[in-house]
Amino acid sequence: MRGMEGEMLKGHLDLIVLAALSPGPAHGYAVIEEIRRRSANRFNLAEGTVYPALHRLEESGLLSSRWLVADNGRRRRVYALTRRGMRSLAQQRAVWDEFAIAIGGLLGASPRASAT
Amino acid sequence: MIPEFAEALAGRLGFDRSLSRAVRQEVEDHLWEAAAAELTDDPLEAQRRAIAKFGDPRAIAREIAAVALARSARRLGVAAMLVIAIVFIAMKARLTWYAMAHWPPLDRMAWLGAWVASIDRYAFWSAVCASVVGWLYVSRQRAPANGCVVDGRRVRRFLILCWGATSALIASVLSDGVLTSLRLAFAADLADWSIPIVSMVIEIGCAIALVVCVRGIARRATYGAQAG
Questions:
Q1: Closest residue in B to A14 (Cα–Cα)
Q2: In the A/B pair of chains, how many CB contacts fall below 8 A?
Q3: ipTM > 0.85, yes or no
């Protein structure tokens, strides 16, 4: 799945981050862990790339954040989906599902069958 | 090793101290957690691996700077319109005061008054147009998505509109100053000066505030472009 590490992954980073936050609020490292876990380690992002995405989504009103003090005493920024973020995720998920079905249909058809 | 890396990344966002501090804390928290998860007994090696997995600090700083710049630009777009609205209210309040206090119209030097008033009118409405266009332009702009660099052309165009609005507003406020001075020069009753003076102070304050805000964003844009 090396191909997924490049531009293809970057192009869907916002959706990936929103999906990773759908179970509940999380900080940046936990978001990356969730992405790895749910993608069965297929998505091997440079970890720092999620932070611009988190900031951008917060700026767009799709996420909110608050600072907490973690058990280790460090200040930690925790992000959560807003209602707008949940709606956006649902919309993007529906679009993605349709796209996946369409691409699946195209790639699933054999060249001979398509020619006839 | 981790504090130095976080400091280096945050240092690229030095144009915004609170953003820089927040990013440093966030990145440091991330890296310490990542280092703790590394399967090695050597703490330095764990830190080195965590940093290696984090990615290019220049690219990350550049993207975060782009998000911050887009946010600041949108705020400036709204602030510019608010400032111009306050100037308009101050201007109208002064004119209403003249009417209520039965100040005589400018008889002497009426030609100068009419000439300056037309400059005032055109300058003010130019400021309104430039600020509305700037606000529309910037409110449609979203932070560059997924690894794009700062769109320097968009920021430059927005700043040109902001400087245009600011220059026009300054011309309008200066014209107001000339008109008010002409009125005051021929006013006999000193007690009536308070409202025109206060309204002019408000207008001048607004113009200065707008210059400071636009300069601030211009500086951010310059530093933001250098963040990478």
A1: B146
A2: 78
A3: no
